[in-house]
Amino acid sequence: MRRIPAGLLILLALPALSGCGGGERPLTPLTAIGTPTNLTCVPYVQEVTGIRLTGDADLWWREAAGRYPRTHRPEPGAVLVFRPTGGMPLGHVAVVTAVLSRREILVEHANWVPGRITRDQPVVDVSEGNDWSRVRVWYPPIEALGSSVFRAYGFVLPEGTFASRLRPVPP
To answer: Above pLDDT 70, what percent of the chain?
Structure first.
């Protein structure tokens, strides 16, 4: 029996990221990486932050205009809004859990690893202008930053004191 190379398995799993719309999807059987969930990124972020934007993740930046503050600087509790890609046609959203430096944050999100909630995952700003318009994201199955660079709109800020509800990041 031939073994499938790990790199190919990861590439095969990436299309599942396209499930970051507003609906739910079946639980993906993946072990040891994150908490199992049926939620995609949008309902998960809505639940965690209280932000009441609707539609798929790729619409959140535009939908937030005039309703929620938007910025290009991360802060705990902010929602990083990813632009759509070929493998992620509905975009993606993730919640900032900590700001480690001008160029590195930690996020939690659903469905970056299909069918899982992953917490305190590194995201690195690789944009030329340090404006968080281009990022690399930690991918737990390879235990490293992924090689892909994702385009992002920026950060949507929830109302109130959401950041105070976040778990502290261990040292």
So the answer is: 74
Q: Give the rounded distance of the alpha carbon of 157 from its chain centre.
A: 15
Return the closest-CA partner of residue 99 out of 119, 121, 76, 78.
76
* Separation of CA 26 from chain center: 19
Read off the tokens for 1. Answer: 């029996």
Q: In 3-state terms, what secondary structure has residue 21? A: coil
pLDDT at 156: 97
Residues 121/135, Cβ–Cβ less than 8 Å: no
Q: Reduce the DSSP state of residue 15 to 3 states and report it.
A: helix
Domains and CATH numbers, the chain: 6-165 (3.90.1720.10)
Please determine, for residue 7, whether its predicted confidence score (pLDDT) is greater than 70.
Answer: no
Q: Are strands 35-36 and 116-125 parallel, antiparallel or unpaired?
A: antiparallel
Q: Take residue 104 and report the two structure tokens written for it.
A: 């590195």
User: What is residue 16's predicted lDDT score, i.e. its pLDDT?
Assistant: 44
